[in-house]
Specification:
The chain is of the alpha/beta class. Helices cover about 40% and strands about 20% of the residues. The protein has 2 domains: about 5-125, Rossmann fold (3-Layer(aba) Sandwich), CATH 3.40.50; about 135-225, Winged helix-like DNA-binding domain superfamily/Winged helix DNA-binding domain (Arc Repressor Mutant, subunit A).
Length: about 230
């Protein structure tokens, strides 16, 4: 089997070489770009299996690179791991809003970066079981089409938001801890990243409109999809 291809877009040579080395050691084929325009062009031409993307780039900032890729029919499904010094919650929200699959801040552990890449590619490569159409009151989830409707209207969700909603809805009435959601939805489990779940839940609620309150917060534990009476 051919090695998965990872495109790394990073303008700091030391970090670019560090990421390149550890990903190659982990068995990946790596392409490199040192600015946003080059990274966008390589992603469009070579269709890598995953993109590791810095945000503060010369030429074209990383957020715009991600936005353009997610708008392109041929590149919208390329998963994006953002690697950046921008660590505020606002930056995370913006990153996830434009379609990033994960977000890792600098300084970072190379081992953690490799684990994140492995988790994203594992989710992408897992065969999808033939799951039936799910209807919960006014909510319809179609796993085969990766489509969601509320009151018959399409809801535009990212791949991660879809997995999160599907997990909560399929376990309706049962509390899902943040740690369990990290493991089930993101594919990894460790301390310190529960806010990633919180950020996605807020985004998901905003997109569900009249069903936003169906996603209940269970204080100190996690979340659950409220069963309709």
């Amino acid at each position: 089997m051919s090695k998965p291809v990872v495109l790394v877009v990073e303008d700091e040579p030391d970090i670019l070489d560090l990421v390149d080395f550890h990903l190659r050691q982990a068995g990946y084929q790596v392409h490199k770009a040192a600015d946003g325009l080059q990274g966008l062009r390589l992603a469009q031409e070579r269709h890598p299996d995953l993109l590791v993307l810095d945000l503060m780039l010369p030429g074209l900032e990383g957020k715009e690179v991600c936005r353009r890729l997610k708008q392109g029919q041929a590149t919208r499904d390329i998963p994006v791991l953002m690697l950046t010094a921008l660590a505020s919650e606002t930056d995370r929200v913006i990153g996830f809003e434009i379609g990033a699959d994960d977000y890792l801040t600098k300084p970072f552990s190379p081992r953690e970066l490799v684990l994140r890449v492995q988790a994203i590619l594992r989710r992408r490569g897992e065969p999808q079981a033939a799951e039936a159409l799910m209807r919960l009151g006014r909510l319809t989830i179609d796993p085969q089409r990766h489509a969601v409707e509320v009151d018959g209207q399409d809801v535009d969700l990212t791949a991660t938001e879809f997995r999160l909603l599907h997990r909560l809805a399929s376990q309706a009435g049962r509390v899902q801890t943040r740690e369990a959601l990290l493991e089930q939805v993101w594919g990894y489990a460790y301390q310190g990243y529960a806010r990633t779940v919180d950020t996605h839940v807020r985004r998901l609620r905003g997109k569900l409109g009249p069903l936003s309150e169906q996603v209940e917060t269970v204080r100190g534990i996690g979340y659950r999809w409220r069963e309709e009476t």
